[in-house]
Write a structure and sequence with these properties.
The complex is a heterodimer of chains A (about 300) and B (about 180).
Chain A lengths: L2 H12 L5 H13 L1 H18 L9 H11 L2 H21 L6 H23 L1 H12 L7 H5 L6 H6 L4 H11 L20 H19 L9 E2 L1 H23 L3 H18 L4 E2 L1 H14 L1 H7 L1
Antiparallel strand pairs in A: 1-2
Chain B lengths: L3 H9 L3 H23 L2 H17 L10 H22 L8 H5 L14 H14 L2 H12 L4 H8 L3 H24 L1
Helix pairs in contact in B: 1-2, 2-3, 2-4, 3-4, 4-8, 6-9, 7-9
Classes of the chains: A mainly alpha (about 300), B mainly alpha (about 180).
Chain lengths: ~300, ~180
């Protein structure tokens, strides 16, 4: 054994923390190495000094009295805890799961957020229309409604008759085609915090949607089944409106610009009937082609 | 008949006499350990009582494979640490005169045989008080309470390598402060 090895083991050796084999090696080394022997004697002397350390502590008789008094009620506490344990076990078999404070709090906050969101949507659909569509749905100076050449819908139509996706489709099926609108409560319904990654993913999906739409067969006059593109467009439109507003609020103007360019296409597709007239499909396809929106999305 | 396991078992059933025997057996080492941490006799006794009250309340949680002394030291460690934290929050200082401890190194060598026990105790106590909390904890458990590394790890929650390092550093610091008395 080398001195370094011995010194490293010496404290553990004095503490009785080395195994028999190591102890033997240390003992053998100490017999032959005066330097390590001196170190060992120093450690032993320290241990003797510490062994003489007397704190002169006296435990007063009152100490146990104090403890005894404090635990006097504890035996019953122990027994009652036992009884409670048995009762609790049986009660637990039939108990409704108990919600912890943190979980309950989180649930309350969530419910409050839903309630606020619901009330907001119920009371301010027109403001949302303006905020969402006012800046982004204009194309070439015209609103979507005006471009389609359709009269603007009575505001009461949206507020007095909330329309979900299916109702909207059925209604439009009856009317064959109707001007696209952006104040569709089935489309615009939520706010969320989005990251740049979310935006990139959103634009990628939108680009794929437009490519898919562009390849739809609409050469003859038969109605075109756009149900998939329509539902996908509704989902993306919802995201798009919120993302555009977020981008505007956070000063991300290039992002806001590309989202603003995309939005009219999403609105147009989202508001097509499931079996859309080929002429309407061709119109949107032509616009997709003409505006190079797909290239713009790709280059983002 | 009065093994620790028997006493614990009886105390769990509400036998206060059994718990009193546990107290008699372990109160001194527990109070010594606490005193080494807080350096205040009155407080040490108070905290020792608190330790045994908490132990009584938690007796049922004592696992059979755990040594009673290890378990009690673990509770005492928590009680002492809480007290130290409270004192820090209240911006109080240890009762020891630290400057006096710092001046120890200026003293000439004094043979141990000539030191009164009281003086030696003061030297050791002040040297202990200058160790940081973790080192003091490990050092007192090993050197004064003769706990094994595994027991210290269980009491403190430290890993074996950490406690070995702390113990070595504590020994080195203690040697610097009391070594001259050892060499004499």
């Amino acid at each position: 054994m080398k001195c370094d090895d011995c010194v490293n083991l010496l404290e553990a050796y004095v503490d009785g923390e080395v195994d028999e084999h190591e102890s033997e090696r240390v003992r053998t080394h100490l017999m032959t190495c005066s330097s390590c022997e001196n170190e060992f004697e120093a450690l032993t002397a320290e241990s003797e000094l510490y062994a003489r350390y007397d704190r002169e502590l006296q435990i007063s008789p009152a100490a146990w009295s104090g403890i005894s008094a404090r635990i006097a009620a504890e035996p019953s506490a122990i027994e009652s805890r036992e009884r409670k344990d048995v009762r609790g076990w049986f009660a637990g078999l039939f108990a409704v799961p108990r919600l912890g404070f943190a979980f309950s709090g989180a649930l309350a906050v969530l419910l409050a957020m839903f309630a606020v969101g619901y009330l907001y949507l119920r009371t301010q659909p027109e403001q949302r229309l303006l905020a969402a569509g006012g800046s982004g749905v204009r194309v070439n100076g015209e609103t979507i409604e005006n471009r389609a050449g359709q009269p603007e819908q009575d505001p009461g139509d949206a507020t007095n008759h909330p329309v979900d996706g299916k109702q909207l489709v059925a209604k439009k099926d009856q009317q064959k085609y109707r001007a696209p609108r952006v104040d569709d409560p089935g489309v615009l319904f939520t706010d969320a915090a989005y990251t740049d990654g979310d935006t990139a993913s959103h634009l990628d999906q939108a680009q794929k949607l437009l490519v898919s739409f562009r390849s739809l067969p609409a050469d003859d006059d038969d109605d075109v089944d756009v149900s998939y593109e329509k539902s996908e467009s509704r989902r993306l439109l919802n995201e798009n409106v919120v993302m555009r507003r977020d981008a505007e609020a956070t000063g991300k103007f290039p992002t806001k610009s590309v989202l603003g360019s995309l939005e009219p296409f999403l609105i147009d597709i989202a508001n097509l009937p499931d079996k859309a007239p080929a002429s309407d499909v061709r119109q949107i396809k032509d616009r997709v082609q003409r505006t190079d929106i797909v290239a713009e999305l790709r280059s983002y | 008949m009065n093994s620790s396991a028997d006493l614990v078992s009886r105390a769990c059933r509400g036998d206060q006499e059994a718990f009193r025997l546990i107290f008699e057996r372990y109160s001194r080492p527990v109070m010594s350990f606490i005193y080494d941490q807080v350096s205040d006799r009155g407080l040490a006794e108070e905290l020792m009582q608190e330790t045994f009250v908490r132990a009584y309340r938690s007796l049922k949680t004592l696992r059979s494979e755990t040594k009673l002394s290890t378990w009690l030291f673990g509770i005492a460690k928590n009680v002492a640490r809480e007290s130290l934290r409270a004192r820090i929050r209240q911006n109080q200082h240890l009762n020891l005169d630290d400057q006096q401890v710092l001046d120890l190194s200026d003293c000439g060598p004094v043979p141990v045989s000539q030191l009164l026990n009281k003086e030696l105790n003061e030297v050791v106590q002040r040297a202990l008080a200058l160790l940081d909390e973790d080192k003091r904890l490990v050092f007192t458990l090993k050197v004064f309470q003769q706990c094994s590394y595994e027991e210290i790890a269980e009491i403190t929650g430290f890993s074996i390598p950490k406690l070995k390092t702390d113990l070595h550093r504590a020994r080195t610091e203690m040697r610097q402060r009391v070594g001259q008395y050892v060499r004499a």
